[in-house]
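Appendix B, record 7
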Amino acid sequence: MNRIVYSVVFLLMIGGGLHAQIHVASQISSSDDDAEEDLSDGSIDLTSSDLEMCLEDNIWPIPNDDQTLGIRFQNIAVPKGAIIDSAHIQFTSDETTNDPTVVIIYGEDINNSVKFYSLDYNVSARTKTLQNVTWTIQDWDNADESGSIQKTPDLTSIVQQIVDRSGWQSGNAMSFIITGSGSRVAHAYDGDASMSPVLHIYYSAVASVDNFGSDQVSIYPNPSSGEFIINAPQFQSYEMIDTQGRIVKNGNISSDQLQISYQHAGLYFLRLTHRHSGQIVTNQIYITP
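Structure tokens (predicted):
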């Protein structure tokens, strides 16, 4: 099953809009979504129990094989043109390996990546993104480990290039192509699907603050030096959020009018929750230096 996760992470202000960071995660979900290509003849392996980056260590006297890795993630719920804040792939180690390993990660420069096929050169023949990321991988000292050492560097530049394509749509699939030298062995879908690679993307959507306004709420003075009077009948609680998404002040509203005192200059969001409907109304407030 394709594991897809999305959640709102925090709110901040960019250019007069409410900036919501969303987390999307997608795990490899089928046998033909990860592939190893032998560089000597282009042959494709879709059913390997592990993923070698990028040297296939064979049993003597069979020589080792250099290979290119392809991994594909389905149903990427990121809208076209979204602002990518960060992205990475999380691998889980399958074996302990410690030889020097450096890989280069590309995206497939296409609107909607198709599954891999058992056709020669079906990984390396795909069009790569101009953007790429080099990963010098530390030693993998433990099997079944999924931590910072098995996490790629930031892939924002690659993902941004793909979602900026004119034909990209939310729900499309996205593939990555990995080449390099050395050997790190990760779990593949056919080895243990629960430990197959996971793509994490954090992106920003921008919505006008006016969308969150309400004629039931008034705030004065605004801007102020740190003292606000809020008329908010029928609202039960409030949160005051800074531009880093941190809640700096919160509480219940016991009457129609609320007084807030906060002395740190800056721009903030005041989120009010309606007592009956649960509707959230957000207004921006500004504290002068």
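Remarks on this record: Residues 12 and 243 are 4 Å apart (CA to CA). The helical segments are 156-163.
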